[in-house]
Write a structure and sequence with these properties.
75% of the residues lie in helices and 0% in strands. With 147 residues, the protein is mainly α. The protein is extended. The relative contact order is 0.17. It holds the Pfam family FUN14.
Length: 147
């Protein structure tokens, strides 16, 4: 019986991106801000479409999550009322007081960890460089939430 050898083609992504300028513009790590790559109308369209999609999905997932949380809370109240479960309200109150103390402690310092601060700075720099794209995204997101 003859042995059939399968041949595979290997795709070198580094070589592929060198031959595809549009790919390099979109995915290159040091490609700069989107304002340098696209005109204002294109940035608004890209931001608006992605924002609308995100808002639409967020709205649907949000409704589902709210229904699940509300239904779960309703079922727990029924189970508590009928005696299937017992809630230790003193323990709940003690844990809530601990959480309040920790929130007061963290909010009084008003200090962010260096990792969080660097991420926030990166986001702010991105938003400043891509004002038009961000504005389109925000508008599209609000439209997506409303639809």
């Amino acid at each position: 019986a003859g042995v059939k050898e399968d041949s595979f083609n290997v795709l070198d992504l580094a070589e592929y991106t060198k031959n595809r300028p549009w790919w390099r513009k979109v995915f290159a790590s040091s490609s700069g801000s989107s304002a340098e790559k696209y005109n204002v109308a294109t940035q608004l369209v890209i931001g608006g479409v992605t924002g609308w999609c995100t808002g639409f999905i967020f709205q649907k997932v949000g409704k589902l999550a709210a229904t699940a949380v509300g239904g779960g809370f309703f079922l727990l109240q029924i189970a508590n009322h009928t005696g299937y479960i017992k809630v230790d309200w003193k323990l709940v109150e003690r844990d809530m007081n601990k959480a309040k103390q920790q929130l007061k402690l963290h909010s009084s310092g008003n200090k962010m960890s260096p990792e969080v601060k660097s991420r926030v700075d990166e986001v702010i720099i991105f938003l400043k460089k891509n004002v038009i794209l961000t504005g389109g995204f925000a508008g599209g997101f609000l439209l997506g939430m409303a639809s």
